[in-house]
Write a structure and sequence with these properties.
Radius of gyration: 21 Å
Shape: globular
Helix content: 10-25%
Number of strands: 8
Number of helices: 7
Distance between the termini: 77 Å
Strand content: 5-15%
Largest sheet: 4 strands, antiparallel
Length: 240
């Protein structure tokens, strides 16, 4: 029979190391090393010259330096999500901006295909990588009075407008405009699994109150690609 001393000793249970990492590593602003690989780091992909970079093979190496030769694919056309336009996205040699990330996530492409084609954006579970900073055009939806966000907050008078999309309620697709405004936080590497769908939060109203891909100022969008997409051309970030 155990002694009275042993019976009073507390039972220590081992904690899941992933849970410990959630506590120790909360969401934080991107580091200087992560901010190196933002929009201005990449040339805009031009379909006329097909300036994609070399194909990167092997597992993800936790450093975006391996994609230094890649171009940034951006197509803010309203038709960018249809099958014909999605088929034009190079399957290697490009990074995807936030708007395009939302388009391919909504497409019929399978999880392993997303990771295989655009490893810099997606992990093996087709989750947007935690270390990826927002790129290019933001993914947004227009919300009107009475709409309710993922946290149960309702749009009131004067609050309707464009809001950034969140993938699985965890990853903010706010593009360059949201990153520049300091709205993006790097989430912990480990999280509880969520439903793979898009949502929005009333706390993250878009900085640029225009439709995805529409410009606020020509100063920010001075690199123009002529009509090679059949949609009148589009603007990309020039780095100025």
């Amino acid at each position: 029979m155990p002694s009275s001393r042993s019976m009073l000793r507390p039972v220590l249970r081992k904690q899941d190391p992933k849970q410990l990492r959630i506590v120790k590593h909360p969401a934080s602003h991107p580091s200087k090393s992560q901010l190196v690989y933002q929009t201005d780091h990449y040339p805009v992909y031009d379909p006329r010259i097909d300036n994609r970079g070399p194909k990167v093979t092997g597992p993800f190496r936790m450093s975006y330096s391996i994609y230094d030769g890649h171009a940034l694919y951006m197509n803010p056309s309203p038709d960018a999500g249809n099958a014909e336009q999605l088929a034009k996205i190079p399957r290697s040699g490009v990074r995807l901006d936030d708007l395009t990330v939302s388009k391919v996530l909504k497409s019929s492409l399978r999880r392993h295909e997303l990771n295989q084609y655009w490893q810099g954006e997606f992990d093996q579970n087709a989750m947007v990588r935690a270390t990826r900073v927002p790129l290019g055009h933001a993914a947004k939806e227009f919300k009107k009075v009475g709409d309710t966000d993922i946290d149960g907050n309702t749009i009131a008078e004067g609050q309707q407008g464009w809001y950034y999309l969140w993938w699985t309620g965890l990853h903010l697709l706010c593009g360059k405009e949201g990153l520049d405004a300091g709205m993006y936080m790097v989430r912990p590497s480990f999280e509880k699994k969520r439903v793979p769908t898009f949502s929005w939060k009333i706390s993250h109203r878009a900085v640029v109150q225009r439709a995805p891909g529409q410009v606020q100022s020509r100063r920010d969008f001075t690199y123009e690609i002529p009509d090679n997409w059949g949609n009148g051309g589009f603007f990309g970030y020039s780095g100025v």
